[in-house]
Amino acid sequence: MDVLASQTPAALGVKGLTKRYGDGTLALHDLDLEVPAGSFFGLLGPNGAGKTTLIGAICNLVRPTAGEISVFGHEGSSMHARRMIGIAEQEPNLDKFLTVFETLLYHGGYYGMAKGEASERAEQMIDAFDLRAKRDVEAPKLSGGMRRRLLLARALLHRPNLVILDEPTAGVDLELRHELWSYIRKLHEQGTTILLTTHYLEEAEALCDEIALISGGRIVARDTATGLKDSHGVGTLEEVYLKTVSSGRIALAEEAART
Amino acid sequence: MTALPPTQVEPHPWRGLAWLSRRECHRVLKLWKQTILAPVIAALLFMVVFGLSLGNSISEINGFKYQVYIVPGLIAMAMAQAAYSNNSSTIFQARNDRYLDDILSAPMSAWQMHIGYLAGGGLRSLMIGVLLTALALPITGAPLEHPLELLAAVLLLSTAFGALGIIVGVYAQSWDNQSFINNIVILPLIFLGGVFYSVSRLGTPWEQISHFNPLFYVVDATRYGFLGASDVNPVISLSIVAVITIGLVSWSQYLFSTGHRLKP
After folding, report:
1. What's the pTM value of the predicted model, to 2 decimals?
2. Does the CB of A192 have a partner CB in chain B at under 8 Å?
């Protein structure tokens, strides 16, 4: 069933999404979110706020307890929706038996690309992410920076329309960070929707059209960076973050106490 | 860096299945010394030590020399263990290192993922079976009486133990869990299922008790395929192995369909 279907469907529609883990932890609580097609959308929040759970639910990696997800009008778990998403997860999760080239080639295959197309695209991505010298090296033998490049190359290999980046620059040196952002900016300019989570507030402010703050499993604020600062009567995004995040934590604690 | 534009592409889940199967077979072949060579040598050692060395001091069983009689059971045991250990380790490793996420998020249905993972264990098991058959028959002089029944038996046992490997790989909390199941459950049940003897020689009540061991039917069906002789009717053996296979495959399919223990 499609949710939030309209003439121009949102890149991502999330309605009433709730996730309670087996140990009783409420990670997402009736969360609503709409990410417009073509936007560069930032999702900010502290550790444990629900960012990774939300991304997992969108990418078929977490089983939601309740709620609906749509991707460009397609039901979230459908083949079409999954084909349209590319994800670079927070932790480098690369297949240890595959080389750089094979990692990209097999990923293309899993996402339905024909061998020739996947192979050609893999070579393109190897060049685009400066991985040529490591083409035939297995993932465990790569440096941290190279793994990050490969993760991003893999996420983009099948030409997704919605790219989800879960803290892609965590632990990355300044030079590579700027390289990655430069590439992602170009992708966005060409029409790809980007959903980014990061702890670097200044980067979110510089890159994102819109920012949502998540805390206690809920979206507690959403606007442009300027709009967020104006509506909270503060001068920096950091101040907005600190104010909204604490209110979300209090709400979650109250919810946990009730249930 | 040079930016590349995104484009609309249709999902092709069959290609996903083909590539996942290929990945699993790639892993088996890449680690061939561990996945193929070692089990073949181990089974051949059993044949040499128990069959050729001790065989002359053991009387014939059901009209077959001892070194011939044990060949089918040893091949079945090697194939079963290969299918099990391959799939349990590949799934556990993919879960543990989280690269399973690349599969779970891909546009493939649950049964396509399931078959893709079964493929690696199936390939490994069948390669070991073919190699051992090619080596053991000339060495021991064992016959190949019913190739079609044998094919049915080994396909069923490879699928059943491959599915069991997936189940254990999904539930396992550590590497120890997998070897525990292999060493404490599978290996003893296969040994007690008549790899080295005919259960009809055990006498009451051990013969009857052996018939409650599901692995007995796996060994017996394989033995019928090679030797044309078995302790129970081969139709009954194959039917029981088929029921076991359906049960295990249904269980492992349930895990992929629901995401139970694969996805939080």
Report:
1. 0.87
2. yes
A159 with B23: Cβ contact below 8 A: no
Q: Which amino acid is at B108?
A: M
Among A63, A83, A179, the residue with its CB nearest the CB of B9 is A83
CA distance A130 to B1: 8
All structural domains of chain B with their residue ranges: 16-258
CB contacts, 8 Å: B103 with chain A: 110
* Cβ(B217)–Cβ(B237) below 8 Å: yes
What residues of A are in contact with residue B16 (Cβ under 8 Å)? Answer: 109-112
Distance CA B90, CA B172 (A): 12
Distance, CA of A155 to CA of A81 (rounded, Å):
15
pLDDT in tens, chain B (264 residues): 544 444 556 767 788 889 998 998 888 888 999 899 999 999 998 888 877 777 677 778 878 888 898 999 999 999 999 999 999 999 999 999 999 999 999 999 999 999 999 998 999 999 999 999 999 999 888 999 999 999 999 999 999 999 999 999 999 998 888 888 888 888 888 888 888 877 877 777 777 888 888 889 999 999 999 999 888 899 999 999 999 999 999 999 999 999 999 999
Closest residue on chain A to B112 (Cα): A110
Task: State which amino acid sits at residue B36.
Answer: I
Q: Is A141 on the interface with B (CB under 8 A)?
A: no
User: Which chain A residues are closer than 8 Å to B19 by Cβ?
Assistant: 106, 109-110
- Report how far apart, in Å, the C-alpha atoms of A161 and of each of A32, A38, A55, B9, B190 are: 21, 9, 15, 10, 52
Chain A residues 25-44 with a CB less than 8 Å from chain B: none
Of B4, B16, B104, nearest to A128 by CB-CB distance is B4
Q: Which of residues 124-153 of B touch A (CB under 8 A)?
A: none
Answer whether the bond into residue A9 is a cis peptide, omega within 30°. no
If DSSP states are collapsed to H, E and C, what string results for chain B?
Answer: CCCCCCCCCCCCHHHHHHHHHHHHHHHHHHCHHHHHHHHHHHHHHHHHHHHHHCHHHCCCECCECHHHHCHHHHHHHHHHHHHHHHHHHHHHHHHHCCCCHHHHCCCCCHHHHHHHHHHHHHHHHHHHHHHHHHHHHHHHCCCCCCHHHHHHHHHHHHHHHHHHHHHHHHHCCCHHHHHHHHHHHHHHHHHHCCCCCCHHHCCCCHHHHHCCCHHHHHHHHHHHHHHCCCCCCHHHHHHHHHHHHHHHHHHHHHHHHHCCCCCC
